[in-house]
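Q: What does the assembly look like in three dimensions?
Context provided by user:
Components: three
Sequences:
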Amino acid sequence: MDKKTVSTIAYLSRLSLDEENGEKITKDLENIIKFVNQLEDANTQNIEPLASPLEKTAKTREDKVTAQNRKDIFLERSPKSNDDYFLVPRVVE
Amino acid sequence: MSIQYKTINELSQMLKSRDISNKELIQETFNLIDANLHLNAFITLNKDASLLKAEELDKNLSLQPLSGIPIAQKDLFCTKDLRTTCGSNMLSNFIPPYSATVIENLENAGCVSVGKTNMDEFAMGSSNETSFYGNVQNPWGDKLVPGGSSGGSAAAVAAGIVPAASGTDTGGSIRQPASLCGISGLKPTYGRISRWGMIAFASSLDQAGPMARTAEDCALLLNQMCSHDLKDTTSLDETIPDFTENLDKPIKGLKIGLVKEFDLSQLDKEVVKVFEESKKQYETLGAEFIEISLPNISLSVPTYYVVAPAECSSNLSRFDGVKFGKRCDDPKDLEELYIKTRSEGFGDEVKRRILIGSYVLSAGFYDAYYKKAQQVRRLIKNDFDDAFKKVDVIMSPTTRGAAFEEGSKGDDPIQMYLEDLFTIPANLAGLPALSIPNGMVDGKPIGLQLIGNFLEENKLLRAAHNFQLSTDWHKKTPKRDIQS
Amino acid sequence: MSWETVIGLEIHVQLSTDSKLFSGGSTSFGAEPNTHVDLIDLGLPGVLPVANRGAFYKAIRFGLATNAEINLTSTFDRKNYFYPDLPKGYQITQMALPVIGKGSIKIEVDGEEKVINITRAHLEEDAGKSIHDLFEGETGVDLNRAGTPLLEIVSEPEISNAKEAVAYFKAIRQIVTFLDICDGNMAQGSMRCDVNVSLKKTGDDKLGTRAEIKNINSFKFIEKAINYEIGRQARILESGESVVQETRLYDSVKNETRSMRSKEEANDYRYFPCPDLLPVVISDDELNEIKNNLPELPNEKEKRYIEESNLDISEAKIIASSKTMANMFEEACAKTDDSKLIANWLVGDISALLNKDNIDLEESKLTSNNFAVLIERISDKTISGKIAKSVLEEIWESGGSVDEIIESKGLVQIQDESLIEEIALKIINGNPSQVEAYKDGKDKLFGFFVGQVMKETQGKANPQSVNEILKKLLS
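A: Here is the predicted structure of the complete assembly.
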């Protein structure tokens, strides 16, 4: 697995890999991918992927407002907020 | 009167006959917790609320099925206003504003949630060595792992601190620690127990389940844990039977499948010996053994290690330092907020799985890995469907061996992954499976796994209960009774 | 070098359901920040989505109105990326199997009709809002909007210029408002659009590289953004360079598009089926119910107005083209049985006011109720047509109620014929030379007398009565 791939994947996952653990994790990833490559051998022609072990369809909800206003608890228990908003460092678009 | 190592039925009886009051029972439980702090089985205790509930139960004697029973809850279930960490630094300060359905079900049945148990971080691990809150000790020996990810729950039950604990099982996280700790644990059919409030690891594999001293106790707990929950659309809308019904009905004629592809010769001689003894035991009970083939079973572990990381990489994206959980100090911009918070908040195993997950889902690799794995998953499920046309249950050892030493699996994650060889297939197919103690190897307990067909927990529990009626592995305890 | 423009539009329509796509949180606009956030909208650990059946019904209405394939079984996927107003770090959308497949819609540009094909329309959840300019060095996140159902409508790249793009956008807006699936309120962001623009050499089969201009929410800006972008791409291609495939933002102040290039050249969304949501199935019975209860579309209303209300084609067309105006027309007709009068006002005075202020009817202060009452008061002769004009102008400027304005300004028409006769006599007696001139044959002077009576009564005299009485007295 080349460095670029690993750093792209790390960025997509918003994880940093420093010098120290970067090498170990890259090696781990390589080994794991090698391990799962066994799947190549399976004959899966015309086999439908199984997304869920349940052979059923979804129950849905009626279009009704059922939620309560929990703004205070949500903001209070958040890492950073003021009276009205969750706060993050200024985003520049 | 000592409460240590008592079963649910025994404690219920003691409470009914007033041999002990609810308050005394809960107080004793906390004494046991204190006497066993070295196990590091708990992350957060719920003492005040528990004592309060016990006092209320003493005042209004209730007829609830599990009234007054102390239970340890895996710290993966959200408990309202009680810290829930998932074994992670990321949630070290997370106080949920709601409780998981399964927690509510158990508490409504009268259980007293005495605390949140330690676990592998975000349920990723098979030894409880990845928790931010330190390793859990196996009560059977110092420096031995209890298994994972429900290591704390297993240890709490194995040490006789509580008769019952909730666990979760995604690739074996109830059964494997049950095996290594010498207790009984069951993963029901996917969808039996609501996942509302269960912090998600791999959504199509996760299931909650009971961990207790006996199969019968597991059945008692299962009765209360199961429900059809409209808040979880993957929750089954099937009738919930009384899982304790007909448990002692004899199992003469029960057809037990032995998987041809599980090459037991690879295992330790002692482990095979224990397994063979159990087979003989089942034969005396009237069961019949039939060889079955699950041709794709050897691909279970690689399949799992594509599907589970893929789902978890997405499920864990919500941990970003914005709305709940930890945030890094003074991020200078949004990028740093995300990257630093997540890199500091997650341990190495979690990071590994997130990276694998992102990789197998990424453009160019999706078909070769994720789609392929889901196709193999269907092959594995089809194999089981075929097998269950010939047999009632499938039997195997739960684990490759007994509890191993901390740190002994070395640096290679794959060594740890292979621990779940026997347990993973049931999760991929969504089938119910349990583990019960069936012997000792080098003075350490080991477990027997039974896998059942969709919705057939009754068959499993009956087979397990019958075994426990005629053997006493499940009665063994790590130490002599210690007065708390 | 002649270039052909190829444009495709992705329009995000906020469905007017009461609750969100996957939770019971309210979707109503304008609430205090973070007060319409359910546990599920916040993305708390352990929460699970449950699909809102009403959203499917609204999507299916769109499918029926555009003759589209309707997938009674559809599935959901996750689109993974990080942004502060995306609480779960992924958006639940429909990639693989959307509820609505291929359809089409007619547009009209400069009198010519063209059919634009629609590739698909799928359901997905909206994100919250990031507020950048309120706090020093920080961005505020409001999750009220998070989870609101969107219908993303994707057109085939068959639009050839900015005018067609605007016509297409308007046509979609008309359909969704008439179907009652979206309020069409552009200012509130009920409809947003991403525009894909590319150029190719005339006659070339191969499409050029496209740029995507994101999040435009006004007709004017769509036109300007596209024209700027065409110019920009043409300049690049003329100089022999290649257009970069990227996302751009339209800056309405500078009238230009700007690259939004982020670190990830191609943002890999890692789509995969959402394991928490099983496939949703709509039954044939439900489909039939929706079919049978489909709201009237503009062309159906047009026809009905012509046949039943005796409007002429151009009146019917104008009134039927806007849901708000159609409603206004129908509500007024329900109160006053004079469709021609009502049509005149809508097509005449009101349309003129809309043009003058360059707004849509729903943005005006005139309510359906007010209009209906105004017509009633004209019809029952409480006020004259001329006075009504001034009442309308008053309401247009400052809102208010018709009856209150009539009362406070004392605008009630003078119907009392004896009073009018009294005033008329006064005018006649006071202007003997004009009376003579009139009687001599200067017919035009009649207007003078009318004017004087009106002046004397501050315009409140019933004009018909004035005419009749003066005629009588001057004969």
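Follow-up: The radius of gyration of chain B is 21 Å.
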